[in-house]
Each structure stands twice: as C-alpha cells, then as structure tokens.
What we know:
By secondary structure, the chain is mostly helical. It has helices spanning 2-10, 22-48, 55-60.
Amino acid sequence: MIIAATIATIFAPEDGAANPPQWYTFTIIAMGITMLLWHLLEIVTMLFSAKNRAFHDFIAGTVVVRIQH
C-alpha cells in the first residue's frame, strides 16, 4: 500500500488538475485492483488451508507455528 501511494505521488500531475491524464487514472485503478486481489487471495488461502497458511507462506515455504504459553 505504501509503495502504491509513493508511486502515485511521484507521478501525480503537478498542476493538480481536476482531470488527471488517462494513463494515471488507469495506473491507479490497476494498482488498487491488484492490491485488492492480493489481499483477498491471502485471506482465502489462510482460511481454507489446513495449517492456516496464507498465500505468501506457500510462496516462501513457511508454516505457521503456534506456541502454548
């Protein structure tokens, strides 16, 4: 999220126009959709995996470990 906000700020139109360039609008929409899909994928894989592993855990090959206190 921070990276997307930084990119959006760097490439934001300088004049603060009410109608930003079309490429800028499409870029912001694409980043938003990508982040939404990533978060949904994380939640769905975490909820439905036997070991409560999120998508990034599958990519990294890590496992959730619970420690009893």
